[in-house]
Amino acid sequence: MQVALFVPCYIDQLYPNVAWATLELLEKLGCEVTIPDAPVCCGQPMANTGCWDDARPLAKSFIEQYDQYEYIVCPSGSCTSMIVNHYHDLVGEDAQYERIRLKTFELCAFLTDVLKVEKLDVSFPHKVGLHQSCHGLRELQLGSCSEVMGEEFSKARTLLEMVDGIELVDLTRKDECCGFGGTFAVSEEAVSCMMGNDRIHDHEHAGAEVITAGDMSCLMHLDGLIKRQKKPIRTMHIAEILAGRDVAVQT
Fold first, then answer.
1. Three-class SS of residue 118?
2. In this predicted model, what pLDDT tens digit does every residue of 162-209 receive, in sequence order?
3. What's the DSSP call for residue 173?
4. Exposure pattern of 125-156 as b/e (b: 16+ CB <10 Å)?
5. Residue 232: which residues within 8 A CB-CB, separation 6 or more?
6. Distance between CA 242 and CA 131 in Å, rounded?
7. DSSP 169
8. What structural domains does the chain harbor?
9. What is the DSSP track for 174-206?
10. Which residues fall within 8 angstroms of residue 2, CB to CB, at 6 or more apart?
11. What is the DSSP annotation of 68-105?
12. pTM for the complete prediction?
């Protein structure tokens, strides 16, 4: 199976270990992975700020560069959602984009829905709290939302339950926003920090040693608050856990 790995800009620049872990995980599961020599920003920061003319060239470049691949996988729910749900606003009706949209997947969705992973030969003997990001839940349907009646599910949790030795702690509010929201964290700093601290407290109260998520942007926000307050809790992207990385070697 041929997979193009799209590495978001903030992971490329700040958290390269997440990109490596994603690559290792996909290859371990039998994928032939390519990282295209193309722009590493989906255009979301510009689009969210209203700079549509600046975001449009990035969308067009992404579509042109990634159309040749069988599948496109991204370890970020918000970037994936930008591509599959919002590029239409930038490029309009476009047959090439429609092909891109149908074959672009967030990492956990790709593992559960395309590869249909049922077993992972990895161990992570730690207490873990799962943060489910807003984009992943409400725009990609990676899990159920508490405001909607229906069967409860979580693609990320399903994968984590395959990890030997892991103890997934139960949170009081399983799908609450961390407060990051991209530019929201800049324009509404106080509210953003308060929301982030609430999420951290929920994980602490549940006894988590590690907070994991499918969006490194959420974890970046939480990790900043954790480090400033010198709290004894770590953050790790879900790709790192599923690839067999251990919290002890994280920096």
1. coil
2. 999 999 999 998 899 988 887 787 788 899 899 999 999 999 999 999
3. S
4. ebebbbbbbbbbbbbbebbbeeeeeeeeebbb
5. none
6. 15
7. P
8. 2-114 (3.40.50), 127-249 (3.40.50)
9. TT---S-TTTHHHHTHHHHHHHHHHHHHHHHHH
10. 31, 32, 34, 69, 70, 71
11. TSSEEEES-HHHHHIIIIITHHHH-S-HHHHHHHHTEE
12. 0.93
Instruction: Name residues whose C-beta falls within 8 Å of residue 218's C-beta, 6 or more positions apart in sequence.
Output: 131, 133, 178, 180
Query: What is the DSSP annotation of 38-50?
Result: S----SHHHHHTT
DSSP, collapsed to helix, strand or coil, labels residue 144 as coil
Structure tokens at 111: 């593992």
Which parts of the chain have pLDDT scores under 70?
A: 39, 248-251
- Two structure tokens written together for 149: 């009646």
| Rounded CA separation 244/225 (Å) | 26
